Amino acid sequence: MKEFKVTPIRNGTVIDHINMGMALKVLKIIGVKEDVNSTVSVLMHVPSKKAGWKDIVKIEDRELDPKELDRIALISPNATINIIRDYNVAEKFIVEVPNVIKGIMKCSNPGCITNQAEPVEPEFVVESKKPITLRCIYCDRLTTEIAENIQ
Amino acid sequence: MSAGFRGMDVVSIRDFSREQIEHVLKLAEKMVPIARGEERSVMLEGHVLGSLFYEPSTRTRLSFDAAMTRLGGRTLGFSEPKGSSVAKGETLADTIRMVDAYCDVIVLRHTQEGAARLAGHFANRPVINAGDGAGQHPTQTMLDLFTIRKEKKQIDGNHVVIVGDLKYGRTVHSLSEALAMFGAELTFVAPPTLQIPKEHLKAIEMSGKKPKITSSLEDAIKEADVLYVTRIQKERFPDMAEYQKVAGMYRIDLNMLKDVKKDLIIMHPLPRVDEISPEVDATVHAKYFEQAFNGVPVRMALLGLVLGGLK
User: Fold this and answer.
1) pTM for the full model?
2) Where are the alpha helices (DSSP H) in chain B?
3) I want to staple B161 with a disulfide (CB 3.0 to 4.6 A). Which of A38, A64, B20, B224 is the partner?
4) What's the whole-number mean pLDDT along residues B254-273?
5) What is the assigned CATH class of domain B138-292?
6) Domains B2-136+295-306 and B138-292 are alike in CATH topology
7) Which residues of A touch B (CB under 8 A)?
8) Which domain holds residue A130?
9) Which residue of A has its CA nearest to B202?
10) Across the interface, do A140 and B134 touch by the CB < 8 Å criterion?
């Protein structure tokens, strides 16, 4: 019989096929913090048929908004989202890189005004989806270093 | 066209189409007699310009002031943050909201890149970027284009050689993208550590021909129709050792001009330190002081457009 290190969840969201090592950044992106009020399981370095290794995040009793989840595509373009209802996969979709990114990462340019104490959220336009390249709408700096700049 | 300009922020040259830039240049030509004081204008009478300079400037600040005054308007503001509420730690956003209530147009020079775009988000009035850190300086670009067009009759087809600090020099980044859009040929001359950043090169290649890149000015200058010289900016170097290595590497003197085209023009956004020898000033090639004057009519045209005095 197959051994499960983490049991299936009854209701909630499972984010599968996360690039190995990116699970904690995924939690940051979707806003899961210390004050979380449902069970969150984080599996890192899990064997994967497709990619060799992957990470998985399971959030119980919460169905995350697909738009929020699309941001995951920035660091894990192959991630899949499974909405679980009563142990069954009720909805399944692949994340898509959004056209605009607001608030989840800082500009890689230390001289950018958004890295000062100004009341604005950093905002980026996605210039290219392969490889993912973002342009800061304030200073115009292009960056491909997404994971490093997630706040 | 006027509906597009009235109330518009002037933050980056990328915000403008070729047609819009040509419209500004055409109007600037008409402003020349007023800029020279030969004709009078009250086009912007009753209008107030808020001039916020967080970094030192001579030409840009004075030429905006001259442009506004020549059109009958007034200017208020500061030429350094010392003594203003900024020195007390006020955010740029708050300063902008305050100045927005006092004037009709805001001209901003700031140390941080993206400052003008941020100002534009907080201001209801139009914001004109007068240079943001190592970022954009669109009115300098427009006056440079104006100068080339005036001296060479057209911009496209000219071979423009840009020499000096191509890494930190903000005028170079805006200008080279605009020149590519106008179909000029470009050569970048700089030591490898100060060459044009890759992202700008990519943007230039997307809108025009592939530029040449070299560190030898002697070879490039012979082919040039326009030589655009920039200062190696000590204040933008994080590492002084890097500055010492490259300071004084390129110097334009009479000897350097022996084999150049007869109608070569030499431009410089000024201030210069020792990149152009003073003996060059008396040659037919030197156009940098005319270029500095051209800032006035170009800024008059822009002020007139964003405030609705010109169409």
Assistant:
1) 0.87
2) 2-5, 18-35, 59-70, 92-102, 115-122, 138-152, 170-181, 198-207, 217-221, 240-246, 288-306
3) B224
4) 94
5) alpha beta
6) yes
7) 107, 109, 111-114, 116-120, 136-142
8) 100-149
9) A142
10) no
